[in-house]
Design goal:
Keywords: Acyltransferase, Transferase. This protein is an alpha+beta fold and about 375 residues long. The protein has helices spanning about 20-25, 30-35, 50-60, 65-70, 90-95, 115-125, 200-220, 235-250, 255-275, 280-290, 330-335, 340-350; strands spanning about 5-10, 15-20, 40-45, 70-75, 105, 130-140, 155-165, 170-180, 185, 195, 230, 300-305, 310-320, 335-340, 360, 370-375, 380-385. Helices cover about 35% and strands about 25% of the residues. A nine-stranded mixed β-sheet has the order 5-4-6-7-1-8-13-12-11, sandwiched between helices. It has a three-stranded mixed β-sheet with strand order 3-2-14. The termini are far apart. The protein binds coenzyme A (COA).
Length: about 375
């Protein structure tokens, strides 16, 4: 039975900053951000948005009455969870108006967990081919004002349906996952911002990629010529280049040129948004599909990485008509509003965070489809914008 990703959508926040302005404010050469890190714009999160509202906004783009009937399970991958016990998936399922008879759970392993969701969804669909599993990766990447990681912040969510006879990407049988206990990036329960050993993290990422890809090749016999594109988790777009360079070295042939060109296409959206954590690999997939030479029948390789650490290399084959199963990301990005660095800093410091206080947020300036309206009696309050 063919199983894979049937549809894919993306949502981000209504605001962004220009990283040339951030560079000037931080007294850094803008080319460090634009070329050295590979980022141009960064999504900024108002207090009325969080992992729940972003995840619901991405999933809402896929919803039809028929699909709502068929979703058996909602798997939400996030490292920006809003509660240590109650799953983000419960709130999202409620905002989407899905049936009471839906299985919901939250998954966590840094930026890797959405891929765990896809693999688990594949198993659930194999067990019940009529069912559709909704997999969401939703996050807010926060490192702190003035930190080295600040330029690699970002926010947004992807939503995918995994089903039998998929219309977008049929998953191949073989995938290779690897894990190890490593402290390259983490966020203790008392911290609002991530802690990161960025250079070490980059090295671990590359090692996981090379090792999982080599094992995948041993298991399948596939060579670079078999792939139209290799897609990467992009905590910052230069990371994808570092990983591909580690594989290709100074090769300059048909395969290496095709893969480098595909990488550039896959980086376009992330350059405009920043790190999505769990959703980042899948925004890269969307970007390749909408900006690269994607064609039905092509085999794509996907490398997912989450600090801590876990990596997985897997592949799939593009299906006829795949372009109709995506939302128009360029239009979404074009509709955002640029804000100043001081407005960004003010919003950065206005998040609910770990506060236990009751609060009501002003939602009047946020055009997003769902809002976090505040907190009451230690309970987050959510509302649809309609
Ligand atoms: N023009 C062009 N490139 C420039 C430049 C300039 N003026 N100034 C610096 N650069 C380049 C550097 O040469 C370097 O390139 P390289 O990585 O290819 O060697 C790059 O810009 C970054 O500079 P560096 O001094 O190494 O940056 P940094 O110490 O500020 O840290 C990160 C960069 C990415 C490590 C940091 O932002 C970080 O920790 N981010 C979080 C990483 C992460 O998300 N990890 C977890 C998920 S996998």
């Amino acid at each position: 039975m063919k199983i894979g990703i049937d549809q894919l959508s993306f949502a981000t926040t209504p605001y962004y900053i220009d990283l040339v302005e951030l560079a000037k404010a931080r007294d850094v050469d803008p080319n460090k951000y634009l070329i050295g890190i590979g980022q141009e714009k960064q999504a900024v999160v108002p207090p009325t948005q969080d992992a729940v509202t972003l995840g619901a906004a991405a999933a809402q783009k896929l919803m039809t009455p028929e699909l709502k009937e068929r979703i058996s399970t909602v798997l939400v991958a996030t490292e920006s969870g809003v509660d240590n016990s109650k799953a983000t998936a419960i709130y999202i399922k409620h905002l989407l108006g899905l049936s009471m008879f839906t299985r919901v759970v939250e998954l966590k392993e840094a930026c890797y967990a959405a891929t765990a969701g896809v693999m688990m969804a594949k198993g659930l669909v194999a067990a019940d081919p009529q069912s559709v599993v909704l997999v969401i990766g939703t996050d807010i990447a926060r490192y702190g004002l003035g930190t080295p990681g600040e330029v690699t912040q970002g926010a947004g969510a992807v939503a995918m349906t995994v089903a039998a006879n998929p219309r977008l990407l049929e998953l191949d049988q073989v995938s290779v996952a690897a894990s190890d206990d490593i402290m390259d990036f983490w966020r203790p329960l008392y911290a609002e911002n991530a802690m990161v050993d960025g250079k070490y993290s980059t090295q671990v990422y590359i090692n996981f990629f090379l090792e999982t890809f080599e094992r995948y090749q041993q298991m399948t016999g596939r060579q670079l010529a078999d792939f139209a594109a290799l897609l990467f988790h992009l905590p910052f777009t230069k990371m994808g280049k570092k990983a591909l360079d580690a594989l290709l070295g100074d090769r300059d042939d048909l395969d290496s040129r095709r893969l480098r060109e595909a990488l550039t296409a896959s980086q376009q959206y992330s350059r405009q948004v920043g790190n999505l954590y769990t959703g980042s690999l899948y925004l890269g997939l969307l970007s390749y599909l909408q900006n690269g030479h994607a064609k039905a029948g092509q085999r794509l390789g996907l490398f997912s990485y989450g600090s801590g650490a876990e990596g997985e290399f897997y592949s799939g084959v593009l299906q006829p008509g795949f372009e109709k199963q995506l939302n128009d990301v360029s239009a979404d990005l074009g509709g955002r509003q640029q804000i100043s660095i001081s407005e960004y800093e003010q919003l950065f410091n206005s998040q609910l965070g770990l506060s236990a206080e009751d609060v009501t947020f002003d939602t009047s300036k946020d055009p997003s489809p769902f809002w976090l309206t505040g907190q009451k009696n230690h309970q987050r309050q959510y509302k649809a914008n309609n």
